[in-house]
Write a structure and sequence with these properties.
Blueprint: H1 3-29, E1 45-51, H2 58-66, E2 76-83, E3 89-92, E4 104-107, H3 112-147
Antiparallel strand pairs: 1-2, 3-4
């Protein structure tokens, strides 16, 4: 098994989770933004992950790992950051500058609890991948010590 390939997989996951945490932070920061450059309220953003797995079956991947040792490992990447297409929340506030003719203001449909759960998930996944990289570094260091 190629330890450096495993490190690349963990590295790609670290990058993807960092982007996810940044998007969640942007959602939380814009939870009360009623006017954007597009003219409407801010729209919650979602991160879409895509697998960068090799185009092989599990059996051929397993045989490649056990046999020649040069099988490619996959990874993860962010394929898109998409805006939520749900309707905005409408609150009655006739004195607000962004109120419509009926006195309602459109706010982003962002639930702070949902965003915190997403942020905790991204943080936990980032930490686990960081631990995997540290373990891989320890294995490589132990291998070098054995070869001395």
């Amino acid at each position: 098994m190629n330890l450096f390939g495993v490190m690349e997989v963990s590295g790609s996951a670290l990058e993807a989770e960092r982007i996810r945490a940044e998007v969640v932070a942007a959602n939380m920061a814009n939870a009360e933004t009623t006017r954007t450059a597009d003219g409407g309220p801010y729209r919650r953003q979602h991160v879409v992950f895509t697998s960068e797995a090799p185009q092989q079956s599990f059996a051929s991947q397993f045989i490649g790992q056990a046999g020649s040792g040069d099988a490619q490992l996959g990874g993860v990447r962010v394929s898109a950051v998409v805006a939520d297409q749900g309707p905005p929340l409408r609150r009655y506030d006739p004195g607000a500058p962004d109120a419509d003719k009926d006195g309602y203001v459109s706010y982003p449909d962002i639930n702070p609890l949902t965003e915190m759960v997403d942020l905790m998930g991204a943080t936990r996944a980032y930490g686990l991948n960081s631990s995997a990289v540290q373990a891989e570094k320890g294995m490589i260091s132990a291998s070098l010590d054995i070869l001395k």
